[in-house]
Structure formats: structure tokens, C-alpha cells
Design a protein that fits this description.
12-stranded mixed beta sheet; alpha+beta
């Protein structure tokens, strides 16, 4: 089998803790164009809102489609492994979250909105044509659920057919936040 890479769009929901909607908007604005390290589990909420960090994402993402103009490229297995360990390897462009320990922080309001994200998808296929078929089915076949089987999406282990039937696609650990999805505004939860 061969490996192919293509840049893709994902959709998700971001949760922001802030004392006011205006402060939450400022945090959301600062999120635009940063790259998060998706292997750092604290970015994804699967606990009650009082315990989440200042900014977190839902543990469920929707894999949409290849980015406009993105071209499928053949890559090596090593390229896939390196892209999935970008933060570990010292990429200073990748951000990790931090938790707030102040007592009042747990009672702070939480705001949410849908956001556009981008990442590199790696496809395991026998040929470029087979890889393009998988890429054309992103929207119909792949829902990125990080609460169960989190490691599958950001690891070469996701391709392993002996483990959980294997996926034909995994993602890079560097996910870029594009900002709020078109027509989506902050709402208080």
C-alpha cells in the first residue's frame, strides 16, 4: 500500500470561557490562523464545562472535503509519522491549551460557535485513483469522533487493519483554526 496526502477542511465547535461575550469574541478572533496540537487531549472537551480550559473544541469533528486547489501528493510512511508528531518535534507554530486554576474560573460563562479547521489527511491506498475515491467520500463516510478511539485519527495505528478494522484515512496532529464558520456567531451555553 502507498500513502497520499491532501489538505482538508474540518468543521467543529469551539467552547470559550470568558466573563463576557465581548471577551469571548476577542479570544475567538485570536484563535483565527493558529495551529493547535491535536494530540494534546486538553484541546477537546469530554468533561463538564466547569473543568474545560479557556478554549477547547468538541470531541466530535466533521471531515468535510479537500480544500479548493489542494492536490493529492504521494508521501512516505515516515512523512505521515512526522506530520503526526509535529509538536513533539519542536514546531513552535503549534499551540497547546492551558487550564486555569483560579477558583472563579470554574463558574465563568462558556460561549460556543462553529469553526472552520484545516488539516492534512493521509490516505492509505493502492493508487492515486483509489486515494481520490476515498477523498471524494470524506463527507459521507468519515466523522471524526475523538472521545472513543482518539489515537486512531492522529497515529499510524489508525491504518492498522488488525486493530479496530483500520481506517483508510488519518490526520496530521497540526490542525489550523480558520475562525468562526460563515454565518455563525457566539452563543452562551
Amino acid at each position: 500500500m502507498r500513502f497520499f496526502a491532501i489538505d482538508v477542511r474540518l468543521y467543529g465547535t469551539v467552547y470559550i470561557k470568558a466573563s463576557t461575550r465581548q471577551k469571548a469574541q476577542k479570544k475567538l478572533d485570536r484563535l483565527g490562523s493558529i495551529t493547535i496540537d491535536a494530540r494534546h487531549r486538553a484541546w477537546f472537551s469530554d468533561v463538564s464545562f466547569e473543568h474545560v480550559p479557556r478554549v477547547s473544541f468538541s470531541s466530535s469533528l466533521t471531515l468535510d472535503a479537500p480544500l479548493l486547489g489542494s492536490k493529492l501528493a504521494e508521501v512516505t510512511e515516515r512523512d505521515v509519522e512526522l506530520a503526526q508528531r509535529s509538536f513533539v518535534l519542536g514546531s513552535r507554530d503549534v499551540v497547546v491549551p492551558f487550564a486555569e486554576l483560579a477558583e472563579g474560573f470554574t463558574k465563568m460563562p462558556v460561549f460556543g460557535t462553529d469553526v472552520d479547521l484545516t488539516a492534512t489527511a493521509f490516505i492509505k491506498a493502492g493508487s492515486p485513483e483509489q486515494a481520490m475515491v476515498v477523498a471524494s467520500e470524506f463527507q459521507q463516510r468519515f466523522h471524526v469522533e475523538l472521545q472513543m478511539g482518539y489515537w486512531r485519527w492522529f497515529s499510524m495505528l489508525g491504518f492498522d487493519e488488525d486493530e479496530n478494522d483500520g481506517l483508510p484515512v488519518v490526520l496530521s496532529s497540526a490542525i489550523t483554526v480558520g475562525g468562526a464558520s460563515t454565518g455563525c456567531g457566539l452563543y452562551q451555553l
